[in-house]
Amino acid sequence: KAGVTQTPRYLIKTRGQQVTLSCSPISGHRSVSWYQQTPGQGLQFLFEYFSETQRNKGNFPGRFSGRQFSNSRSEMNVSTLELGDSALYLCASSLGLAGGDETQYFGPGTRLLVL
Amino acid sequence: SQQGEEDPQALSIQEGENATMNCSYKTSINNLQWYRQNSGRGLVHLILIRSNEREKHSGRLRVTLDTSKKSSSLLITASRAADTASYFCATDGGGSYIPTFGRGTSLIVHP
User: Fold this and answer.
1) Which of B48, B49, B87, B111 could form a disulfide with B81 if both were Cys (CB 3.0 to 4.6 A apart)?
2) Measuring CA to CA, how many Å separate A115 from each of A11, A33, A60, A83, B58?
């Protein structure tokens, strides 16, 4: 069974631009969660989508948004990029809702650099 | 804010030695999970321990949970160079069901 895939793997953007990251979950998984990882803040939960609905949201500004398609693939969008948005963005999928006793399977991440 | 906090932040040992890392958390939980991350890549799930369990084993891994102290420990026995990675604990955020990760312990195992 193929793992979680994320595209692109690396991205360089400039301040003020917007970016869209993509995540394909493991086949059959209905939950996709997004995380931001930085040296300063560690791994922080952005949001979770389950059956095309946002189920949980972390403490991030509205510039961070996402969506999930009927095939469970998910996209994350960051508008008006700031330097502080430079991070490794991780996507994780699970059969059921994350945060319970579900095991999350992580993708390799998209490393975003904002100049 | 971080729910789990790992200790120590960094650990350097020789191959064959045991590695112990600890995790403390703030609110009540239903379960706690440990993950490993190699070189800034994706995380790999290691083990889950539920709040009504005190100890769990998986291969060379041993996890303990003390809910009265709100702490957990991960023991890796007979460490190998391939165990070099960052290790994170993650709680279920108690009632929030938002997975909450600690900052991680960076483990280096010297061959």
Assistant:
1) B111
2) 11, 26, 20, 6, 43
Distance from CA of B41 to the nearest CA of A (A): 5
- Section B68-90 average pLDDT: 96
- Residue B96 with chain A: CB contacts under 8 Å: 56, 99
Copy the structure tokens of residue A20: 């869209």
CA pair distance A62, B26, nearest whole angstrom: 27
Nearest to A60 by CA among A31, A29, A89, A102: A89
* Residues belonging to chain A with any Cβ–Cβ distance to chain B shorter than 8 Å: 4, 33, 35, 37, 42-45, 48, 56, 58, 88, 90, 92, 97-101, 103-109, 111
pLDDT of B100 reads 87
pLDDT tens-digit readout, A27-69: 999 999 999 999 888 899 999 999 999 998 999 999 999 999 9
DSSP character at residue A12: E
Report which residue type is found at A112.
Answer: L
Locate B14 and state its tokens.
């020789």
Inform me whether the pLDDT recorded for A102 exceeds 70: yes
